[in-house]
Design goal:
By secondary structure, the protein is α+β, with helices and mostly antiparallel strands. The protein folds into 3 domains: 107 residues, Arc Repressor Mutant, subunit A (Orthogonal Bundle), CATH 1.10.10; 154 residues, Endonuclease, Chain A (2-Layer Sandwich); 64 residues, Arc Repressor Mutant, subunit A, CATH 1.10.10.10. The protein is built from 12 helices and 12 strands. Strands 4-10-9-8-5-6-7-11-12 form a 9-stranded mixed β-sheet, sandwiched between helices. The chain has a 3-stranded antiparallel β-sheet with strand order 1-3-2. A hairpin with an 8-residue loop joins β9 and β10.
Length: 338
């Protein structure tokens, strides 16, 4: 059942919605009767009815003077919905045109336009939320044990973005596990299928949205919080590389089992098995996926699935990075390849 503010998106506050719901339920009512049902003063109830009248949701009864009747929800609310959709369509078109104009002006941005300095707790918090709400693909973040501007428990934008299908990869410092509400927040994130890892310490707070924007705090010794917002540039690529480096060395977190609900558990990532090592060795020798599959008597999909798992395991996004990681870890010199 919708809550008392289920029609807020149509411009109705709680008082108007409560009056409309009650009027729909009663069929018809005069001001004293409706005020009694709502447990409100009669002047407040009459103001709410007049507001509903302006929205086309209520009208005075022609058959019984002094009584009010509700307009049919399917018709009245449908009209409001159509109006809101039209307004949103116009806003979306305006946003698209502004974005195109911005991109046209930023084709060759000056160096000073690649970095914004945001100052003040409210401004930093607002920019942090905007980064997530504007993401369409992936958000990556390094989280320290001392959130100064946006406590994790208050980050509703993360829940909204994840609900839209935005993928999250987050590395948290181990002290986060011991903060009040820390485990609950991590459990909620894992329950939204976010990928979370843990390390003893992270080098800095950091959030990256869609490989196009990043946000990193300035020194905490400043008189008020400040942060850098970094646009697509070599600096952003460096920050992205920093995240991937920390991600590779972090331990995955998972939800506790049925016997331990609401808990999170650190787990050592599974290493590659003998078949994985053979696949890696042949790929590094220059063979294609199809050639590897034929050489090892495997299906092409099996080879591709195993490579994808290894990339997820190591936290890399390209096969070139996977090859570097393979050599770095000495995987090609183990198992059946020795």
């Amino acid at each position: 059942m919708l809550g008392a503010t289920g029609l807020a998106a149509l411009g109705l506050d709680e008082a108007h919605e409560s009056a409309y719901r009650t009027l729909v339920s009663a069929g018809a009512a005069d001001v004293p009767d409706l005020a009694r049902r709502l447990a409100r003063a009669e002047p407040d109830t009459e103001r709410a009815l007049r507001g509903l009248e302006r929205h086309g949701l209520a009208a005075r009864s022609s058959a019984r003077p002094g009584r009010w009747v509700a307009a049919p929800p399917g018709v009245a609310l449908g009209a409001l919905l159509a109006q809101r959709r039209h307004e949103l369509d116009r806003a979306e078109l305006t946003a698209t045109l502004l974005a195109e104009e911005y991109r046209a002006q930023a084709t060759e941005p000056a160096a000073h336009d690649l970095v914004e300095v945001v100052t003040g707790a409210a401004a930093v918090a607002q920019r942090f939320l905007q980064l997530q709400l504007g993401a369409s693909d992936e958000v990556r973040a390094l989280v320290t044990g001392s959130p100064e501007v946006v406590p994790a428990a208050d980050n509703a934008a993360e829940e909204q973005a994840a609900g839209r299908g935005v993928r999250y990869r987050v590395v948290v410092e181990r002290p986060v596990l011991h903060q009040p509400g820390g485990i609950a927040g991590l459990s909620a994130a894992l329950g939204r299928d976010e990928r979370v890892r843990v390390v003893d310490t992270v080098p800095t707070k950091l959030v990256i949205a869609d490989r196009t924007l990043a946000m990193v705090p300035l020194t905490s010794r400043a008189p008020e919080p400040a942060a850098l917002v970094v646009h697509a540039s070599g600096l952003l690529e460096s920050l992205s590389g920093l995240f991937e480096s920390v991600w590779r060395d972090a331990l995955p977190l998972r939800l506790g089992g049925p016997g331990a609900p609401g808990t999170v558990v650190e787990e050592e990532p599974d290493g590659p098995d003998g078949t994985d090592l053979e696949i890696l060795s042949l790929l590094l020798a220059g063979l294609t996926d199809a050639s590897v599959a034929k050489q090892l008597g495997l299906g092409l999909r099996t080879v591709q699935r195993r490579v994808k798992r290894l990339m997820e395991l190591t936290g890399v996004t390209t096969r070139l990075q996977l090859g570097w990681h393979t050599y770095e870890k000495g995987w090609v010199a183990r198992g059946p390849l020795e």
